[in-house]
């Protein structure tokens, strides 16, 4: 109960040993556990093992060859080069500059960071450990839409303040956006960027609920709501209603924050809506400094089953689409793209970067490094490792300094693995990766490169009338002054006229 390395043993000093018994016998049965990449568990056992080993600083090499079926459809790999490079351990980590022409405080971001997880969903000690890990490792920590708590600020780790539809931390009594509250928080030195959450991959198009029994006095103070009351986050924003208005809102936040980068996060639903956003960028000359693309496979502590499994475009397709549309409108160099959704390993980073992402975020991977053992009780306040609970008797099990070093180590080792893979292809920098480097088996007898599956667009082709056929419908439907497709607007107007007559 007094040791600080294992959260489970601090909280459950007797029965908690069962987990280490299973870990002890794992090498003898791993050939039965690692037969395929998708084995029915929430996170593949192989990825989970790698995360734990890297976070603890243990040996993360695998004996006896590949554990994946290289002949199965969907298997992916990178083509190495005969002229491979050596990636030295002392080589500096790759940093990406985020900030467009309207940004006066650009930010140098790591290629791998902590994705959005709110205080309230996570415990105070979990937030402290994540932020301390970010400070130790030199990467950013996304606050989630629960606003900026004292725990986010204690270790001065770099923060991305996420603002959702509930405007927590920057709202008035009616739940509308409040500029004065926003400016008061956004100008804090630890906050490096602002992210407007339009939707998230786990439940796109679905609002959130903060139950009354979880709305403690502390959480209410941080979120600017009344304690002990149920607080609903609506499905859509009230501060803007059209793509053009959204560009003006982005510029407002940029000015209020003192010129810090402002971006948006979304899961892709209807293609014409994102095209409409790009049309608004071109029309106004304003644009977000970054776009976080959250795949439909994105995680959360609690979401309706149907939304988790059946709503939202998967990350690979969404990422390729966003990068193609930005390229087609001549915006890709100005707007950085961040990929989020089941990013656990260095090769996951490589695949996303090859598709067009500049940076990757990870939530579940960082939670695993923090000590999560996938008890799958995130929504019950009974997390045994003290990660996803507000119960002080359980959060005490999570010792901040120990877990912070694990988070920093997991980041360091994952970035190292990514850079070593890139070096094996003869490349020096992540920006040199492109779709021609990654291969996918699409049938038992056929393999294609990513650039054959996700065809690259010519820069500016969506502006000069030379767009590919597959973008024609979205271009026709999209309008900068409405998120709704033109066809839907026309049909609605005709229906109203018919009703009136």
UniProtKB/TrEMBL annotation:
Pfam families: Glu_synthase (PF01645)
Annotated ranges, domain Glutamate synthase: 110-427
Coiled-coil residues: none
CDD domains according to UniProt: GltS_FMN
Family: Belongs to the glutamate synthase family.
The protein, known as: FMN-binding glutamate synthase family protein
Organism, scientific name: Rheinheimera aquimaris
């Amino acid at each position: 109960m007094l040791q600080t390395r294992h959260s489970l043993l601090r909280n459950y000093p007797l029965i908690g040993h069962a987990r280490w018994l299973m870990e002890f016998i794992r090498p003898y049965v791993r050939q039965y556990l690692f037969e395929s990449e998708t084995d029915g568990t929430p996170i593949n056992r192989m990825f989970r093992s790698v995360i734990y080993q890297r976070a603890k600083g243990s040996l993360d090499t695998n004996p006896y060859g590949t554990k994946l079926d290289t002949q199965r459809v969907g298997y992916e790999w990178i083509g190495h080069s005969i002229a491979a490079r050596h990636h030295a351990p002392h080589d500096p980590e790759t940093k990406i500059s985020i900030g467009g022409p309207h940004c006066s405080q650009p930010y140098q971001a790591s290629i791998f960071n902590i994705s959005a997880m709110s205080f309230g969903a996570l415990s105070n000690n979990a937030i402290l450990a994540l932020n301390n890990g970010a400070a130790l490792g030199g990467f950013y920590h996304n606050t989630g839409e629960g606003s900026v708590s004292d725990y986010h600020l204690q270790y001065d780790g770099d923060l991305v303040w996420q603002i959702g539809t509930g405007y927590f931390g920057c709202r008035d009594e009616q739940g509308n956006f409040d500029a004065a509250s926003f400016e008061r928080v956004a100008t804090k030195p630890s906050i490096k960027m602002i992210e407007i959450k339009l939707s998230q991959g786990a439940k796109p198009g679905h609002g959130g609920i903060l139950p009354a029994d979880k709305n403690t006095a502390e959480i209410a103070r941080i979120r600017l709501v009344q304690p002990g009351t149920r607080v609903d986050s609506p499905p859509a924003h009230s501060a803007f209603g059209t793509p053009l208005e959204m560009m003006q809102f982005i510029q407002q936040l940029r000015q209020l924050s003192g010129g810090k980068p402002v971006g948006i996060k979304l899961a892709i639903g209807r293609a014409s809506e994102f095209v409409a956003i790009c049309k608004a960028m071109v029309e106004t000359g304003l644009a977000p400094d970054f776009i976080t693309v959250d795949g439909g496979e994105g995680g959360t502590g609690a979401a309706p089953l149907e939304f988790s499994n059946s709503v939202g475009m998967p990350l690979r397709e969404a990422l390729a689409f966003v990068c193609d549309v930005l390229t087609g409108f001549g915006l890709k160099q100005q707007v950085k793209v961040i990929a989020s959704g089941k990013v656990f390993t260095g090769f996951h980073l490589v695949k996303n970067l090859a598709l067009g992402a500049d940076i990757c975020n990870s939530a579940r991977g960082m939670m695993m490094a923090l000590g999560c053992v996938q008890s799958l009780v995130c929504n019950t306040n009974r997390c045994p490792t003290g990660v996803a609970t507000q119960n002080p008797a359980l959060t005490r099990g999570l010792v901040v300094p120990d877990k912070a070093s694990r988070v920093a180590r997991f980041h360091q080792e994952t970035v190292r693995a990514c850079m070593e893979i890139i070096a094996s292809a003869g490349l020096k920098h992540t920006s040199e990766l492109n779709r021609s480097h990654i291969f996918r088996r699409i049938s038992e007898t056929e393999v294609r490169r990513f650039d054959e599956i996700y065809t690259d667009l010519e820069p500016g082709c969506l502006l000069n009338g030379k767009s590919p056929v597959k973008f024609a419908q979205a271009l026709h439907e999209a309008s900068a002054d409405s998120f709704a497709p033109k066809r839907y607007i026309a049909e609605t107007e005709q229906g109203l006229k018919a009703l009136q007559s």
